[in-house]
Amino acid sequence: FAGLADVSISEDIPVEGEITVPVGSHSPDEDFSTLDEPVRDTIMRDLKAVGKKFVHVMYPKKSSALLRDWDLWGPLVLCVSLALMLQGGSADSKDDGGPQFAEVFVIIWFGAVVITLNSKLLGGTISFFQSLCVLGYCVLPLTVAMLVCRLVLLAGSGTVSFIIRLIVVVAMFGWSTLASTAFLADSQPPNRKALVVYPIFLFYFVISWMILTFTPQ
Amino acid sequence: AGPGTMSASGAAAGGGRSGTAAEWGGFEDNMQGGGSAVIDMENMDDTSGSSFEDMGEMHQRMKEEEEEEEGEAGAAEEEDGEFLGMKGLRGQLGRQVADQMWQVGKRQASKAFSLYANIDILRPYFDVEPVQVRARLLESMIPVKMISFPQKIAGELYGPLMLVFTLVAILLHGMKTSDTIIREGTLMGTAIGTCFGYWLGVSSFIYFLAYLCNAQITMVQMLSLLGYGLFGHCITLFVTYNIHFHSLFYIFWLGVGGLSTLRMVAVLVSRTVGHTQRLILCGTLAALHMLFLLYLHFAYHKVVEGILDTLEGPNMPPFQRVARDIPVVSNAVLNTTAKAIALTL
């Protein structure tokens, strides 16, 4: 080793590193610890998150909770319940209720995807699933309107009931549009808000129209 | 100080290596096996931080392992073939690291490409302001007078896309109020298929004709032109689906539909040279555009038969009692349509 006597490490470069190697793999995130909790806790936590988002939709303040932890459970539940309630309103009794359910499902999800792509193309800063989440959750007022319409239709289907349904649906449509605009328009450049709001308006208009023209058999 | 320095550098190298292994340890689950065995760092633990002689011993051990592997691996020759080139790089560990890096890099690159390539291609066509959209909507109803030099067409897709969706919504409304029964498929599917099919199909067809007739127009411009031409359709259908008077529809058809057709025709004429070519191109576009509006009205329009009977008496010509089922059209309708077209041309 005599020839290697002049090789040395410079004082500036710190020698560092882990000498001990961890045995076994340690998971990078700590969420795996939730694997041990009872199922009820997991479900309740998710339900509480969904419920909190429902409250955010009904009282739209400019909070980022809806955007930060997005989830698609709420939209799925709303979409399925709306589609189920809209079923059975076909004009011909020979038609099965199949296409109606698929229609509503496809309208909601396809429409939400198109609006998201549109807002991204216009220069929005929101991510794909966040936008889907917001649009899905803002269907809540319209689902409530559908429920009210069904109840009103149980009572009768005359002009008075039509007027009541019209008022309720229009009010909920306005609420939906305002709620989703409050969340989504912030992520757009300020002079293009109208360009993003119009498709949202059209989207909820189509859904409201389907609710209003629903007549049970 | 010689051996001391050596062990220090050995420790540094060994520590560096195990540090690297710990870094890449997170990707272990992404390894698809390949041909190499996953290195068990517990065994390496004995040799890391040790002196130079042990490193040499370790290298020797790895070489022996590789020779064993070579002997066994008859079937996995292709995979080993890849790794043989890496033998120079510290053997198995180098192989693993390089393989992981390549896979991660490839995955990221393909993800980035598929995500960004798709959206960014369309981004320049959506670069509009609301004022511009409104101006273009109004302009689409005003035929230009100057056809001696090519008119400018904005290659924008936001306005046309929104107009097509608006048309879909209006069509849905019309279908719902007319109780159209679609046996195979859904209302929504029919509406979307009709509107998008018209927009994309007729645009492509006219673009093809323009290519044949040497007209100066690109595909995006054609899509944009036809899309904005649907504004007239939207207005007409919106009004006439709610107010069910046939004479009103004909007035709107000629007036509003005619204006938007004239605008499109004028723009195309300004970009085409030669009388025959202009005639072919503009005749086709005008015919398709006007016929589409006619089709949309008659196919999805509810005839309030009872009211019409009481209002207009029993002398109604049969063609007005049209079509809950599409597209059964009687001779009278064809005659009237032909007359109407003759009037416009």
From TrEMBL, chain A:
Transmembrane segments: 70-89, 101-122, 134-156, 162-184, 196-215
UniProt keyword terms in alphabetical order: Membrane, Transmembrane, Transmembrane helix
InterPro entries, per the entry: Yip1/4-like, Yip1_dom
GO CC annotation, single: Golgi membrane
GO BP annotation list: endoplasmic reticulum to Golgi vesicle-mediated transport
Entry's localization field: Golgi apparatus membrane; Membrane
Origin: domain of life: Eukaryota
Segments forming domain Yip1: 59-210
Membrane topology (UniProt): Multi-pass membrane protein
Keyword Oxidoreductase: no
Pfam families hit by this protein: Yip1
Family: Belongs to the YIP1 family.
PANTHER family: GOLGI MEMBRANE PROTEIN YIP1 (PTHR21236), PROTEIN YIPF6 (PTHR21236:SF1)
Protein name in UniProt: Protein YIPF
UniProtKB/TrEMBL annotation, chain B:
Transmembrane segments: 157-175, 187-213, 225-244, 250-270, 279-300
Membrane topology recorded in Swiss-Prot or TrEMBL: Multi-pass membrane protein
Region (Disordered): 1-82
Acidic residues: bias regions: 65-82
GO cellular component: Golgi apparatus; plasma membrane
Chief location: membrane
Protein localization: Cell membrane; Cytoplasm; Golgi apparatus, cis-Golgi network membrane
Keywords: Cell membrane, Cytoplasm, Differentiation, Glycoprotein, Golgi apparatus, Membrane, Transmembrane, Transmembrane helix
UniProt-listed GO biological process terms: cell differentiation
Keyword Transmembrane belongs to the record: yes
Superkingdom of the organism of origin: Eukaryota
UniProt biased composition (Low complexity): 1-11
Similarity remark: Belongs to the YIP1 family.
PANTHER family listed in its UniProt record: NATURAL KILLER CELL-SPECIFIC ANTIGEN KLIP1 (PTHR15627), PROTEIN YIPF3 (PTHR15627:SF14)
Function per UniProt: Involved in the maintenance of the Golgi structure. May play a role in hematopoiesis.
Name assigned to this protein: Protein YIPF3
Organism of derivation: Rissa tridactyla (Black-legged kittiwake)
